[in-house]
Amino acid sequence: MRVAIVGFGTAGTARLSGYRSVEDAEVVAVVEPSEERRGAAARLLTGGRVSATLDELFASGGPDAVDVVDVCSPPVFHVPLTRAALAAGRHVICEKPVAVRAEEARGLAREAAARGRLLFPSHNYGTSPVMRTLREAVADRRIGRLESATFRVLRDRHARGVPGYAPDWRRSRALAGGGILLDHGTHCVYMALRLFGRAPEKLSCTVVRPGGDPDAVDEAARLRLEFGDARCDIELSWTGGERSNHYGVAGSAGLVRIDDGRVTVRSADGVRRYAMVSPSKDQTHLEWFPPMYADFRRILADPALWHEPAREIVDTARVVETAYLSAAEDGRVMPL
């Protein structure tokens, strides 16, 4: 599988290392608009092609030079880059959020289906040890019927990018498209979709912007997703004064909570506590890439499954877009 990485910042650099850890993939090209970052890519990519644009890569590489385009750019470029890669007949892996707006997500899903190509989201939290623990607790019914989930992600600052290309792009609406709700919030939304097995029926959301500036990106958010007889509460902050992660699920017969790698399970069998490998403090979470890539290969091998990642992309965009609409109306409850 020949891969082109588009965007050689933090995510793209980590992805190059990630592909080296799997047997059936080879990074043969990097596309990066920054001259400084192209230089970094050229030093690390042995024997591959480094280009400034996708058009330049496709023009110089021949029709079969690349099988998969892996989009690792800031969010506002995800949709046009994905469209261009699909139009060129490539499968696409795209960083989250694949699309900021639901209609854009639907358009990409239609384009991928029409061209017979797989569009796959880089939803790496879905293969994290935390998510595996929560999903297993829900699937094996050890906590009974799932009634609620709680995610709380606190940071003392936003994650920074690399020198050479807008290190603080996450706080730029022009590059990020949104703030923490679009960034960490996207992870939490698709995790909730997977745990509950469906999209929420309605939601409410409030956000905090620095100084109350309506033009600034959000740096804190509270989001409630309502699934009829169950709910998920999400709290996010870039100004929390600490780095901490809390994830929990509660059901009719018990609960599981995970606090920075410390797991507590309450069920009919009693209370059990143990330590899992604490979430990596490296924002790339490189150790989660191999299982995510294995999911990509599994789905790629069976086109009958291609609708599953497409649906998750669309539903995630629907939720996040509606959450911003709710926040604009001071947290009004909105149907999805």
Automatic annotation (TrEMBL):
Taxon lineage: Bacteria, Bacillati, Actinomycetota, Actinomycetes, Kitasatosporales
Protein's name in the database: Gfo/Idh/MocA family oxidoreductase
Residue stretches spanning the membrane: none
Gfo/Idh/MocA-like oxidoreductase N-terminal domain: residues covered: 1-121
Domain GFO/IDH/MocA-like oxidoreductase: 131-256
